[in-house]
Amino acid sequence: MSALLEATGVAVEYHRTGAPPLRAVDLADLTLARGEILGLVGESGCGKSTLGRAVVGLQPTVAGEIRFDGRPVAPLGLRRRPADMRGLQMVFQDPYASLNPRRLVGDQVGDGYLLGGTSKAEARRRAAELLERVGLPADAVKRYPHEFSGGQRQRIAIARTLAAEPSCIIADEPISALDASAQASVANLLVELVRELDMGLVFISHDLSVVRQIADRTAVMYLGRVVEVGPTLQVWSEPAHPYTKALISAVPRADGAGVLPVELPGDVPDPSRPPGGCRFHPRCPVALPSCAQDDPPLRILRDGRSAACVLAK
Amino acid sequence: MGTLLEVEDLTVWLATRNGPRKAVDGLSFRVDSGEVFGIAGESGSGKTMTAMALLGLLPHAARTTGRAVFEGRDLLSMRPRELRDVRGRSIAMVSQDPSTSLHPMLSIETQVTEHMRHHLGIGKSEARGRAVELLSTVRIPDPERALRAHPAQFSGGMRQRIAIAVALACEPRLLLADEPTTALDVTVQAGILRLLHRLRLERDLAVVVITHDLGVMSAVADRICVMYGGRTAEVGPRETVLTHPRHPYTRGLLDALPHPEGGAATLRPIPGSPPSLGAVPEGCPFHPRCAFAVDSCREERPEPALVGSDHRVACPPDPLGDTLGDTA
Staple A272 to which of A22, A100, A246, B134, CB 3.0 to 4.6 Å? Predict the structure, then answer.
């Protein structure tokens, strides 16, 4: 299976006045195949959103290579994006901020078609089709974003990316601003679309249980690095990295048993001064003395699994 | 264990452009001393308004009816002056977002000691000593130094611990925690939940936890009230409500959760969306979204009725009553 999206050794730095640059993503690797859902999880500040923005070209990188469909992804600039990059699209977290409140929904959704060279009338007709496809009434084209609920707005935002006929979507926390019942239905919609249109989807989320439910593969990030990747079911049933294990056991279950989730001691260190050696070693329950010196690379284990831990087998 | 707070027929009217609307509609529940009572529901179900009504912190022009008896006195009929003595002293609150509930420009010392000095009338150095103790209780490393710091110098989880220390300063009997972990990562959340659990054991503190997260409920609550459209759908012991729900809404919420064993292809959402303020349907507020609705659900407002030991359900047709123990 050739990769649809491939990122190798990606690093992103944020420059701040009066402080050393902050390396939000440091040598992260990611691959995504067609028809595949990759869940990208981690605590806030781990760099998952930055990595997501970097792979679509919204964030300049300082190192590494990103290829989409075999071609390098260049950071977005003032010039119009090359046509072959239109297949790479993004869905943002907050549908209240990502839609223009003063433009008709139909016009916003139709933009993707207009850029593809269709006529105005045709773009509007196809926008109506798309809105129906994502589960909205056809008359939505002639309405404004404020007339819709959060879940419906996120559907509009998804329809908007679909108009560009993408083969790969990066969705950054697409359901975390929504109500519980809307979350489930928007997540289901994304899964259906991926399967039906044979797209690739990177689903960035802090909600581990949703990722577990929908992702084919899961990548876990810690402090700017991808520390574990593998098929979702295996990653969950036998996590190879101690951080993955800690994350999973911190999720409370609604089983009525009254079991307190397991606490991971310590805070995420300041990303501008990451600890030496393995970045997780100060919080790691099974750290060896050597972990304070050696920084383990992401190493292939078996069955498509990799982990960045010396103890991983 | 005695009853600490007894809420009877609480109704909260909020002023809207179209006149007063009920945000909470005839809610009754009790909180025993030293227990963790959970209030669950989606946004707009009235759970936050319930907490605000108890503390007299409702928006201007809101009205309440009903009673909320706390240690023998009705909070709802208290004069503002009397309520000020209760609020922050016997009843304290922790809100969702510690970055807005703590003042960014004031030192931690000022914020932890302020109402200690106001309510308990103690001096600066005594208050300071207590603040150090409190911060170490909530596991803030190096409390002496933390007192001189400002909120921005702490992570979100640490800030929430400080907000809890502020709430505990006057040794309240009841803590209202409104979505105390929603803004936090799961690993940090686990720490806060463990802290709440420990405080409640060590201090005989009753906690009302308001959250939409049934996983959080399951971890800390002794009893759970599920709210919908400003009313009680179901209330009962944690294990009963989460493993043998009798209200179709509770069942729907549980079914919408990702399955704990994973694997199943799709999530099962509840169709439709929760009613907005002033648009709560007649009859049972849940009937338009309920798969089991019958004619009477459209007309009669169901009251919570006892169906088992301390377990009340507002669903007269009781479609889940026969499926005892079935929670596949």
Answer: A22
Q: What's the pTM?
A: 0.86
CATH of the domain at B177: 3.40.50.300
Q: Show the domain range for B57.
A: 3-90+172-313
Which residues, including other chains, have CB under 8 Å from residue A150's CB and lie 6 or more apart?
A95, A96, A177, A178, A179, A182
> Which among A85, A65, A87, A69 is positioned nearest to A77, based on CA atoms?
A85
Structure tokens at B110: 């000022």
List chain A domain ranges.
Answer: 5-87+165-241
* Structural tokens at position A235: 């990653």
To test the contact with chain A by mutation, choose from B158, B160, B182, B186 the residue with the greatest count of A C-beta atoms within 10 A, namely B186
Q: A188 — contact with chain B (CB < 8 Å)?
A: yes
Same structural domain, B194 and B136: no
Give per-residue pLDDT as tens, B95-129. 888 778 899 999 999 999 998 998 998 999 999 99
Gap between the Cα atoms of B103 and B296, Å rounded: 51
Does A215 reach chain B within 8 Å, measured CB to CB? Answer: no
Question: Which chain B residues are within 8 Å of A187, Cβ to Cβ?
Answer: 267
**pLDDT by residue (tens digit) across B250-281?**
999 888 887 656 555 567 888 888 888 878 89
Pairing of strands B73-74, A306-307: unpaired
* ipTM exceeds 0.90, yes or no: no
**CB nearest A151 (choices: B238, B252, B273):** B273
- Which residue from A minimizes the CA distance to B237? A256
Chain B CB contacts of A149 under 8 Å are: 273
CATH number listed for the domain at residues A5-87+165-241: 3.40.50.300
